Amino acid sequence: MKIKRLLTLLQIGINLADPIFRGMYHGKQRHPDDLNAVLSRAKEIGCQKLIVTGSDLTNSKEALDIAKEYRKALPRSAICQDV
Fold this sequence. Notes:
The chain is of the alpha/beta class.
């Protein structure tokens, strides 16, 4: 039996380049890197697209690197720089 998906979810404004996703708080490692787990949970609940944001040029470059790294996991993601 096939289940028809009723909703397509789009997460907007997710700053995956924020060190918090790598377990860093105020420059100190507080927990293991959980970026993979965050993205896996998003995909599991049906989130098909992400708009990855950056707060400045450096952060946006990091966001672009993350989008490239996870291209296969979430192929429809985009990069958007906050202004």
